[in-house]
Design a protein that fits this description.
The structure is a single chain. By secondary structure, this protein is α/β, with parallel strands linked by helices. The chain has helices spanning about 10, 30-45, 60-75, 90-100, 135-145, 165-175, 190-200, 220-230, 235-240, 245-265, 280-295, and strands at about 20-25, 50, 80-85, 105-110, 145-150, 180-185, 210, 270-275. It is built from 11 helices and 8 strands. It is globular, with a radius of gyration of 18 Å.
Length: about 300
């Protein structure tokens, strides 16, 4: 593992923007082969860190943990271990954290996760589990040895009473041991900077890294936006909707929109960029190469 004596959290507080990549857990062995090819392709970019999420509704935990461990042992990249509360007891969550630690994975991102019935379904905790992500922050902090990250929501968590209350929750997580946050996808830089301002107003000074997902397939991104509670703004719909039946045009416009969003974020002082790759490297590389050519990362 690179820079084993220095967490990437320190880099997030430095003068140079960081960049990182997020992958989804593959559903089968064929998908896992695609993921490893993508990892190999992006490794040459020397990302600050990479992560593999838990599946929707808490599925694919075992594959996620295994792949994260293998990234630690098989590559030069620093992995961040994901963990959600969905369908897991406190003892199981503690076991996964200890499994990560034994594999040398000491950076973790802990979130509540969506209910098994979908993001709009009522939350039903495991009978021996937890209800709020802050409890998982407290557990990881109590175990010790972890640098803990949490999720953040530029447009507010779907269950939050208000965006300000949601920002206070983020500040409370920071007070319980969280050292950084990564946002859900969003489409307007103003939404991100609004979140940062609200969090700072509640005393949270942790780095908040924006999550970037380019629109490559309109239906897929619309579904992701629904899952995360993000709204596709009118100016983006006006750009994409007239060409939604032309996949190549949608892809080109999506990459252009995402690249401009990255420019706006970096110019406004975002500590870095977290690319949600959809397990494919080409679009991510196109955005990355454009930003690097401009000297932004």
């Amino acid at each position: 593992m690179p820079a084993a004596d220095r967490s990437f959290v320190d880099a997030l507080k430095g003068p140079k923007p960081t960049y990182s990549f997020e992958f989804f857990p593959p559903k089968d062995d064929e998908g896992e082969e695609v993921l490893w090819r993508t990892l190999a392709d992006l490794e040459s970019l020397e990302p600050t860190f990479v992560s593999v999420t838990y599946g929707a509704g808490g599925t694919s935990q075992e594959r996620t943990v295994r792949i994260t461990e293998q990234i630690s042992s098989r590559t030069s990249m620093r992995p961040v271990g994901h963990l959600t509360l969905v369908s897991q007891s406190r003892a199981e969550l503690e076991s996964v954290l200890k499994q990560y630690a034994a594999a040398g994975v000491t950076d973790v991102l802990v979130i509540r996760g969506d209910p098994q019935g979908g993001p709009r379904a009522p939350w039903e905790p495991h009978p021996e589990g937890m209800t709020h992500a802050i409890e998982l922050v407290e557990l990881a902090h109590a175990l010790g040895g972890f640098r803990i990250g949490v999720g953040a929501f530029p447009e507010g968590h779907p269950d939050a009473e208000s965006v300000d209350q949601d920002a206070k929750v983020l500040a409370d997580k920071a007070g319980s041991g969280a050292e950084y946050a990564i946002t859900q996808l969003f489409f307007r830089a103003s939404d991100y900077f609004g979140l940062v301002e609200r969090a700072r107003g509640h005393g949270a000074d942790l780095p908040i890294v924006p999550g970037i997902m380019p629109i490559l397939n309109f239906g897929q991104v619309a579904r992701m936006a629904e899952l995360s509670g993000a709204a596709i703004p009118p100016e983006v719909l006006d750009r994409i909707d007239p060409i939604r039946d032309d996949p190549a045009a949608v892809r080109a416009a999506g990459i252009e929109l995402a690249t401009q969003l990255c420019r706006d974020l970096l110019e406004g002082g975002a500590p870095g960029l977290h690319f949600i790759t959809l397990n494919r490297s080409k679009a991510t590389r196109e955005i990355f190469d454009a930003l690097r050519a401009e000297g932004r990362i």
